[in-house]
Amino acid sequence: MSERAFGRRSFLVGTGGAAVLLGMGSVSGCGTGGAARQANTVASNAKVVLPAYVPYAGITPDLPATAEGVEAAFRHFPKQRPKSVPEKPGNGETINGMSHIYLPVPPGVDRNSYWAGLNDRLGIDLKLQMVPAADYEQKFATTIAGNELPDVMQLRPVSNLPALLDRQFTRLDDYLAGDAIKKYPNLANIPTQHWKATVFNGGIYGIPIPRGAVSVYHFIRQDLFEAAGVSPEPKGLTELTETAKVLTDPKARRWAFGHWNGVQQYLLMMNGAPNGWRAEGGRLVHQFETEEHKQAIADLAQLWSAGIMHPDAFSDQFPAANLFAAGTVAVNFFDGYLGWNTYIQNGASNPDFKLALMPVYTRDGSELASWFRGYVTNVSITGLKKQSDPKKIELILRMLNWLAAPFGTEEYVYRVFGEEGVDHTVNGDGDPTLTQTGLTNTAVPIRYLSDAPAVIYQPGRSQDADVQHAYQTKVLAKSTLNPTVGLFSNTHASKNTAVEKAFTNGVKEIVQGRKPISTLDDLVKTWRSSAGDAMRKEYEGQL
Amino acid sequence: MSTMEKSPAQARSGKRPVWMERPNPLVQLAKALALGVSVLLVVIPFWSVIATSLADQKTINDSGGGMVLWPGSVSFDAYQAILSGGVVTRAVAISVGITVVGTALSLAATAGLAYWLSRRGAFGARPMLMLVLGAILFSPGLIPSYLMVKQLGLLDSWWSLILPVMVNAFNVVVMRAFFQGLPRELFDSAAVEGASSATTLVKIVLPLSKAVLAVVGLFYAVGYWNAFFNAMLYIQSTDKWPMSLVLRTYVVNQTTIGGEQVGAGAEAMPPQLPLQMAILVVALVPILVVYPFLQRHFAKGVMTGAVKG
User: First-to-last CA distance in chain B?
Assistant: First the structure.
């Protein structure tokens, strides 16, 4: 789910607190270069020279990455672990950082051999503020308001982000644009498309945390499909419905589908709705305004009334992972693709458990539907506090370069798995596994400051690399990208949460049969007048 | 009902009043049943939390992915996961410290303020009371509070978790009402004996107010124990985090995100549901331990605000 963190989720989390950001206090921007701020327009942003892309060549994956965005896959962890950063980035300096954390908080550096070792390898005393991911917006708002910025911090979208970046954060063009990035080879290993999300005000303002273009998987329990004797690849709506009916048995507490939004997104893909927005002859049309969307909602209402979705499907607290692991629901549509590892673990106690992925066919089943590519395919971007000392900026970039070491390198092994024998063990095939100590210690959330492009790798299950790579290849062969990716809309940042929620609540009522489908037009009208048209205008101005 | 109506007459006619009659066994049984069901309604969810915290993934899967009533094979993995690494144990110690110090300071400040406001004609009591009542109606926003704490230099200090929330206006009002209910004659005779206001407070008022002190103290203690939000904002180094914030990183984060958390190649975390339930148990234990000692004061204390203003 987190793959959409930078696109939508964080807006939903609530940008309210951040709205005050810029009203607060005098901001410290002392504008060293003296360059006047450029407007955040397409004209100024188009002139930005994006960092060059120099893929890391030190390690050959078992299955290669492709231009369509399929990730490189590894059946086993590479035996050779080359060093990608020859020199220590720092010389005993201190750097303050801040990022969100999804894991239980690790022990402090004095009781955490992994963290101490990391500081040693970096040559930097990294002091990290960790914020529970759910609370990041509030912490961010107060940090900005208190003018207490750490040297380097994770940025999630807030209203007036361009102005905030201009006043409080470092413009990195001089260090990263074009060939300049070659000084930081691991950062140059991040494909160009990811850098688009870091461009504001006609400049580069951050380091992207890249993730795969596939963004989500449609997970299924293949063992349940096989037991019911149905194909795990139903083609078209009719087959999908028939399959789901076979899988459902309410008396045995088994349903085909889980949370309603997953099913909705699957049907939107199936019906060929836009991935967010669609450009039609220089104008933007939003998903909500299309016939395809309407059809998908009608289809969803049908599936709901057929009783093949879990009765709690509309609950916000739907425990999808638990129910999927238990086989109460057989299908978990539209979940974060990195969830593969989690589901494999959850199913480990069940010898029959077999995880698989379902492609999406068009409504009539004639061909594969167009896939929704990741919204931005970044988790977030990392900003550097504005400062006058170029040496400090270079130091921070050297640190981020070390932290972005690609999969399989010596630095990567330490960053993710820590010290062998303490934090992880290695099996006969060379696959590292974290120990209980490692699990606790390595939770330091440095991967949200800088990270290498994600790869497909499931330790101890070499076949999973092939399954996932084949799926990504299949679904990404035909895909749609949201044309507003990388653009900034202030209406979106400030208003979309509430407006989209109201719209979604209306859709839920329609699907559950409490309101007729004709009310959808009113919902769209309200959506347009309260935010939709304003967002369209702001985006179109940047296209 | 008809027997009830007869009862005064029966009592007057020399028989025992109805409340002294031997109760009807059927009614007794019905009462026992009703009480038993009520108790079960309270106990079963509680038991289920404990059972689930001890269950393994297989048991949970077999029960359809939800809570269990019997853990099957008992596993302490969830507790082990929480307590390994020393993060939670350290945080528990911090929370205990904050709760003890905070509650003591809160009680002292609240009692002092309430005593002032309860004395008729005390200097400035009227405007102060308005201020206190105003604090119930209006609360400062997130950012002003943060800036205040920052200006006081309390960031990353445990005092930031105590001072901003030390006096709760509602508790002041409750305590003031209790003090006002004490007989005036006590104060008068104390004054005649030459006791100062402070002596009166310490020697007379507080010993007579154990009930309200226990209740208000419990309110404060529970508040300090459970507070995570201020810690999230004000405490920068994770080494100083109190328990509630540490546990929050176990519960909230894991439920929101499926894939992002684990990354390539992490070993299995204990299944999420037992982990969450174990955390619930850990967070509840201290309150459960304290509660029985305060319980005898509790009923009287909570009534204080109910009938007096």
Answer: 37
